[in-house]
């Protein structure tokens, strides 16, 4: 959260990661509940992949003076799956259209800067089915290659969904075949964006790389 005062008006910026429009709308509902006396709750968000849902709102401010400047902050930074909301408490002095644009843009930019940006990379997902005798060997290989286990199901066999940076997927398939003497059943299971290695993804903004940015 970031707060500043301009000509006695309070501008409070909230920045959070959102994976879906529903998450963004839930965030906005929570902020409205927290600020029942606010004059405006303006926002912009980009959520979803591969087709990002983009929404913005001036919430009663003159058209184009709030939502658009907030969205411009996201687009200039190349950030996706993020919602920025700026709450305004009117202080009695009109800022004018240009002043409002500057105020909302500055609050959004500073809020995003303080929240931080986590880099996301495009990963290939692989479905891997292997018997219990070879499971330990597969786990060690996945750890060695930096692959992530997205889900695991243990029945009469071990069924894993693992993710690896897209450029390393073919090498992982080959190594799995070698490590299990061809006994592992491996199939592609789509692609998804995940935090880059070493990034705990606690930052609010989510910047994508390793593919075409979703701008």
Secondary structure layout:
Layout (H helix, E strand, L loop, with lengths): L1 E5 L2 E9 L3 H14 L5 E8 L5 E5 L9 H11 L1 E2 L1 E8 L6 H20 L1 E14 L1 H14 L2 E7 L3 E8 L3 H11 L5 E11 L9 E5 L6
Parallel strand pairs: 7-11
Antiparallel strand pairs: 1-2, 2-6, 3-4, 3-6, 5-11, 7-9, 7-10, 8-9
Helix pairs in contact: 2-3, 4-5
Q: Using the alpha-carbon principal axes, give the shape.
A: elongated
How far is the first residue's CA from the last residue's CA?
24 Å
CATH architecture of the largest domain: 2-Layer Sandwich
Domains counted in the coordinates: how many? 2
Q: Proportion of β residues?
A: 35-45%
Give the tally of β-strands: 11
CATH superfamily of the largest domain: Impact, N-terminal domain
Structural class: alpha+beta
Round the Cα radius of gyration to an integer and report it.
22 Å
Question: What is the average per-residue confidence, as pLDDT, rounded to a whole number?
Answer: 89
User: Major β-sheet, in short?
Assistant: 6 strands, mixed
Q: Helix coverage percent of residues?
A: 25-40%
* DSSP summary: helix tally: 5
Topology order in helix (H) and strand (E) letters: EEHEEHEEHEHEEHEE
Spans of at least 5 consecutive residues with low confidence? 209-215
Could you please say which CATH topology of the largest domain applies here? Ribosomal Protein S5, domain 2
Query: Regarding CATH, which class of the largest domain?
Result: Alpha Beta
